[in-house]
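User: Second chain of the day. Same drill as before.
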Amino acid sequence: MRTDVPSERVTLADIAAEAGVSLATISKVLNGRSDVAAATRARVEHVLAERGYRRRGGGRSETRAELIELVFHELDPIWSMEVIDGVESVAKQHGLSVVLTVSGTRHSPDPDWVEGVMRRRPVGVVLVFSDLAPEYHEQLHSRAIPFVIVDPAGDPSPDVPSVGSANWSGGLAATRHLIELGHRRIAAITGPADMMCSLARIDGYRSAMNSAGLPIDEEWIRFGDFHVSGGRDRARELLDRDERPTAIFAGSDMQALGVLEAARERGIRVPEDLSVVGYDDIPLARWLTPKLTTVHQPLRRMGEEAARLAIRLAEEPLEQGAPTPRMDLATSLVVRDSTAAPSAATAAPTSAPAPPSAPAAG
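Assistant: Same format as last time:
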């Protein structure tokens, strides 16, 4: 049986007595063993959480596997690789390996993943999810397995360490760029409406439009997903309107690819007839025709910082009451060939007033 050190408030014997099980059963639950009845496991987990049991931290122990676990709900062959490269580079610097897991939905991994990670006992976990269910949170904490969430898509609780990016600023910069080129009819396509990063990018778009005195047509704001199909389908809707936009801000580079496809289908030239701005700055963006203007999101660095934070929390667990580390990395606009001033034909006058000069960025 592993020699777990109980907190000052509770012992393993206390837990066993209250749950009505043996110490061996407590050890099986703590180690993620599968040979424990579901009802018994749930009862033990409940007592562990109720009594505030925690393994004592203090650096890596010989019981930990020398690895970092990186968990996605899906693997995008382009976007995900940037995060993976960042995590792997930091893991290598610390003599660790990376195990990659795909599990669950964008909101949380599956329950069987939690059981598996307790058996694997990694140094730390990096999750590309919006949050963890409270019971999973408690299970990982009770085993002293630190975890960090990358680019929270939801609203993680205040005690969840996370690394994200400045999504609002990115949306603002993209839209200001289009306004400064002279565009007035600017549409925006973003991801699912229940993801905070989607909403933040749209909020940046709204702020830029409002600051420039431009009306916002709610029909020109479309929610979908961050894939090519999401951008293509929403762009078709926008480009088939009687008064189509002269510019589209897409919430991801993959969506921007879909916008370019929808424009080609209709014989709409980019950037002569339609300007397009993406988001992420994936490597493919610089090889497209035209090369894609986009918002650089430091995906690789986000993976690096998340891995560093997970390792640091394994070495130096947070003291009770200490602030939870959360980091938002800066985004920046990368101007390439997919944006230009609107032509006289596409910028035909509308009933809306002409916008004043956009305020300087910053």
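The two ends are 58 Å apart (CA to CA).

User: Great, on to the next one.
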